[in-house]
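Appendix B. Raw example, untouched.
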Amino acid sequence: MGDLMGISVNTISAKDGTEILEIQSNGKVYRMNSAYRPHAEAEKFAVQYQGLEEGSVLLVFGYGNGIFPRALMKACSGHMKIIFYEPSTEILHCIKNIDEELQQIFSEKGYLVAPEKRKDDKRVYLTGQFPKLLEQLVTYSNYNKIVYTALPKYRDIFPEEYKHFQELIAYRINKFKSNIATAKRMGHDAVVNNIRNLRRIPESYCGDSFAGIFPEDMPAVIVSAGPSLEKNVQDLKRAKGKALIVCTDSAIKYLLRQNIMPDLLVTVDPLKPLYLFDDEQIDGIPIVGSPDMNYRILEKLPHSKAIFASSENTYVQQLYREAGHNVERLESGGSVATLAFSLCRYWGFSHIILVGQDLALADRQRYAGRGVLPYDEGCVLLEVEDIYGETAYAPKDYYSYLKWFEQAIAAHPEVRVIDATEGGAKIAGTEIMTLQEALSEYEESGFDFGEYMKTVKPAFSDTEKEEVNRQIRESRNRLSLLLKKLQEGIALSERGLALCRQGGNGQQLFQPVDAQIQEICEYYNGLEESFFVQREIDATCLEEFAGLFEGEKAETKGEQYANLLKYFKILRNVVREVYNMWDEQDK
């Protein structure tokens, strides 16, 4: 029995002798299982999810004493993943031999999310890790197969926790849909940027060179372009010498007009407009980004040192890995400010100050220094609480960024985050104060980032630069060879179809064709350059491509060859496009 979270938990006996849970909360008593036949009750509850299609993910709010989870795992065994989210430590504590209980229930399809775990069980996640687990489990092939529910009585006892549970799931699914839409809208440009930015790789710096170099108590100030920046921009001058000033791309020209020179400029958007970088003072400020960033920015700023600090590009990751560096894929919520936040955490900052991070409209104004700008009258505005406790309105993209910040802050309680925006939406988990108050808490750091940049070495030595350039040139040849192999794959698939039409039977007849097709597929899958091809597929023909091998498998040999023929034709067209991009940047 206990009283954490305002509840007390007892175990009592049902009529059939089974131990069941009884919870007291807010003056009410809740019996969590049937007092007569708890196992039959659980089986009846579980059967409704037995018909969910293959590949579904079932998210269950509550774990209880294990009776319902056992029934669910049995009913849904083998064809879906099930995650149980238990909000109460007290309920977990009332289960005898919980480690054996979990081992008995969980197969490779089951997970538990809980406020604590007894030992290092890979299938048990802490509550703060739930967003990360969702990120792993929700994929392109199953994001529309996510189902969530709650065990009986759980919604009544834990209404706020259930609301949070729902919000996390909705955020992940909506984020995935947004990523798909972004891939279609920006994906092709991102591929172009990834290829064109290869020219900057040999002279670049790697993000891991800056991890852990900053004084322990030195804060980072992330400056965004929200309208409230106009209120406190002059206070940023006091940050020089105390903090690392990290400026987002939309805020840079406004800062420079106020005679404030940031330490770093962060940009990531593949389509970021070039007019944001028109001020000649920008050329020379170190730029942090990913290979996705608009390549024209680096061309426009030839004296700015390029720091690639985040990438999911396996080709680029391998280039850095061979030089002893590691380019991680930093968590990002879709905006340059969220990437800057992840960057500061990666570099070891335990104190982060947010400025200009309004995440809500202020009198129809989106950005500092640009006056009132029109926005789409048809855009959806969501109500949010501002830092003063009043109602504010956030467009859907701002709301998404707001929720990302709140989840990131909750997942990293060791990082102190101060919201010195002095306006805009309230970000849960932050300390709200003015920028002047925030900066007064910190002493001079004695660390000069500009001087450090003069001494830090690029990621590649002269010999390594030559090797990188050689590999990039060689990639063009591999893509050319891949085109020839894909053309062979088309011919082989047509040959297989012809054999089927001729009434061919027996594995021996098809074996030579299948073996050559398998060799072509293995060649493609083994190429680092396949990253660029897959990104172009995501941007231009994802549904058509993925649909070939999703759902039920082709039943006949003829259907298999017909799908392979479509597969090779689509892949050939995409590879030809990527080859042309490569050929263009090679000139």
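End of appendix B.
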